[in-house]
Amino acid sequence: MALTQKSLPKAKTVAAKKAEKSVKVVAKVANKPQISKPQATKQAVRSEKISAAKSAKATQAKVSLKVEKKAEKDPYQEANRRYFQTGVASYYANMFNGRLTANGEIFSNNKMTAAHRTLPFGTMVEVINLRNGRKVIVRINDRGPYVGKRVIDLSKVAASKIGMVSSGLAKVKLNILSKK
């Protein structure tokens, strides 16, 4: 492309503008304190160490949060639940407090325990009241109930948690959480 008289001044102005910008950049750099190469290297290494430490702390925090979330989960996880049976539940009368259960423990209406005819002692069972949807987890430590078609006898505290104390009986669903 041939330069004409008209395009020559425009070319100069573009070149002049670029030169001015480079002078401004040099001036800005000149205003900053000069750092020798060893100092610059030390600063770069130091900033890398700081950023690595920050990222390590962040990773450690994320890991500890994940561990805490896992610890907060129910010890009898969803995957271990399996349907067992549906039927009528009742609860122990106060007169059974202090008596021995079938596995040799002393019965207390204040513990989250229950009696079942066939489940092994120590089995953890989720009991769901089908009328209101409330749930409770109990440990099997006794045998029974031996009245009618009842499937489980709960301690009074477990019965109150699922809202069946006033009625005395409730239709429930049993899910086995773990067997000992």
UniProtKB/TrEMBL annotation:
Alphabetized GO MF terms: lytic endotransglycosylase activity
The keyword Transferase belongs to this UniProt entry's keyword annotation: no
InterPro entries from the UniProt entry: RlpA, RlpA-like_DPBB, RlpA-like_sf, RplA
Alphabetical UniProt keywords: Cell wall biogenesis/degradation, Lyase
Pfam family for this entry, one: DPBB_1
Chain ranges of the RlpA-like protein double-psi beta-barrel domain: 86-173
EC primary class: lyase
Keyword Lyase: yes
E.C. number: 4.2.2.-
Biological process terms in GO annotation: cell wall organization; peptidoglycan metabolic process
Family: Belongs to the RlpA family.
Biological function: Lytic transglycosylase with a strong preference for naked glycan strands that lack stem peptides.
Name this polypeptide is given: Endolytic peptidoglycan transglycosylase RlpA
Source organism of the structure: Haemophilus paracuniculus
Biological classification of the source: Bacteria, Pseudomonadati, Pseudomonadota, Gammaproteobacteria, Pasteurellales
The gene coding this protein: rlpA
